[in-house]
Amino acid sequence: ETSSAARPATDAPAPAAAPAPAAPAGAAAPAGSLLALATAVAAAIFSLYIVRPDADDAYFVSRAVWTAQHGRIPLKDVIFTNQAVKAIAGETPVSSVEVLIGALARLLNVPAATVTYEVALPVFTFVAVWAVWMLIRRWAPGRYALCFAVAMAYLAWSGTSSASLGSFHLVRMWQGKAAFVSLMVPLLYFYLTRWAEHRSRRSLLLVAAAGIAAAGLTSSAALVVPLIVGAVAVPLLLAGQITAALGTLLAAAYPVGAGLVVAAYYPLNVPGPPFTAPTAWAWVLLTGVLGGLTGLALWTAPRLARRGVPALVMSGVAGVVTVLMIPGVLARIGAATGANAVLERTMWVVPGPVAVGMLAAVPLPPAVRLRSAVRWAAAVPAVALCAVIVVAGLPVWSPQNLVHAIVAREPSWKYNPFSLHLASKVLQADHQPGDLLATAKLMGAVPLLTSEVQAVDARTYYLELLPVSAQFINDRLLLTRLAGQTSPMPSESAVRAALVRVPVGYACVWSHNTAGLQLLRQAGFAQVQHFGTLQCLQR
């Protein structure tokens, strides 16, 4: 294949890319595809059994639950009210995958959380694994199966950070943002590479469709997709491939257009200090041995990738990350977009598993390549990389993970089983109109189960993002302290005043929370039921 830099600047249509030189010939591709297929199926099945709760489900699953139970698209808040106030800052109707899941649940007449955790999760996981395989086949110069094995090891053992690429993969794929970084990022690079190499109308259509799908998964697409497009378009422009570069812009057209429209109606202002470049890298691309391995992969990938477009694209990715690492750049992006609290997602521009996987394609010394008796030596880099990753990393499903995980005996919803069971019993017993006040874990389970009853505070982080008065927020925080027996406990007068403004109909606290029980009784609540040591009162 002729390198892109050697092509004439007249921007003539690019010839079809020559097949990458595979290490083993003939049956290598089918064998590698079978390995990828088996891995994707195994990952999809395994994802059903891993239970690693994520508090953000109070938002993501609640939208699906509300859609399933009401048959309409929720445009306002459904976590704390029944669309009585505007949606939380930073989340817009453009991100619509949860609505799709809710619509499917309504069509199938099954709980929306079941479709989320037991249908969408394995499907997304399967496609995400296969997308990594597709991109490796497109970018790697050979040894595809070995590169793929290293990529999978990297994903599985990157559980040292709750924001790592692995932590957004197998154990969190049901959320749109996780599906975006795990599934759509490699697909975007795959479609953009294929467009740049072949320039067919079908390839261009898939580029545009991938951009639209990305925006449907998460509002972060408006931030990340332009970075991905820049990483592809700029090197193509510098190589004189103007038509190819212009075509890549279609991927960003819808995310950027939707982002601009949304910004006019839903101004983004997610509070929090801006991320520094080292922090963003540490969160997503890790520190220590794995972080160093990711850095090595990123900045050597232009030399390891297949010549032509793949090498150009990886040069662009390394260039984008290098610019983001310059002190002050992320702060400026945060100031311009209002996305300070989620700026670590700019690191999603790096297809980390693929980049690390391609380290397994490091060229061997000529003497080794020429000796057929030691062809097995081609596997040595991959075996060494996997060993380093396993020793230095932590499985994303490990109980020692930053977010406690368990491996269940059967396919399970991704929430603490005891809290979920108890919340279900409380909701079945609660026939009093009004919101439910309970301990934090019980209230967090409510949006997964129903949209007919709202919890007083299902997720404090989202509560503080609501575009409402400080009084609305403070009342709910005060009642949350009461239910959780958190110091400082509120006064009787403050509780009475808060309960006038917050329509609590049912309250459940642990029996050892004697101060909370007393305050509720003084405010006019009477005990009606108990579930073990959980005491429930109603107004």
Summarize the model shown:
By secondary structure, the chain is mainly α. The chain contains 23 helices and six strands. Helix 4 packs parallel to helix 6, helix 7 runs parallel beside helix 10 and helix 8 crosses helix 13.
Helix content: 55-70%
Question: Treating each run of at least 4 consecutive H or I residues as one helix, how many helices?
Answer: 23
Oligomeric state of this protein: single chain
Which descriptor suits the 3D outline? Answer: elongated
**Structural class category:** mainly alpha
Spatial arrangement of strands, main beta sheet: 3-4-6-5
Gap from first CA to last CA:
76 Å
- Write down the overall mean pLDDT: 89
Order of helices and strands: HEHHHHHHHHHHHHHHHHEHEHHHHEHEE
Tell me the major beta sheet: 4 strands, mixed
Rg, Å, rounded? 25 Å
Low-pLDDT windows of residues: 1-28
Strand content: under 5%
Number-wise, the strands total: 6
Note the main attributes of this structure.
disordered N terminus, two-stranded antiparallel sheet, 539 residues, four-stranded mixed beta sheet, mainly alpha, 6 strands, 23 helices, elongated
Description:
With 539 residues, the protein is mainly alpha-helical. The protein contains 23 helices and 6 strands. The strands form 2 sheets. Strands 3-4-6-5 form a 4-stranded mixed β-sheet, with helices on both faces. A two-stranded antiparallel ribbon has the order 1-2. Strand 5 and strand 6 (534-538) form a beta hairpin. The longest helix is centred in the N-terminal third of the chain and has 28 residues, at 112-139. The protein is elongated and about 85 Å long. Mean pLDDT is 89; it is low at 1-28.
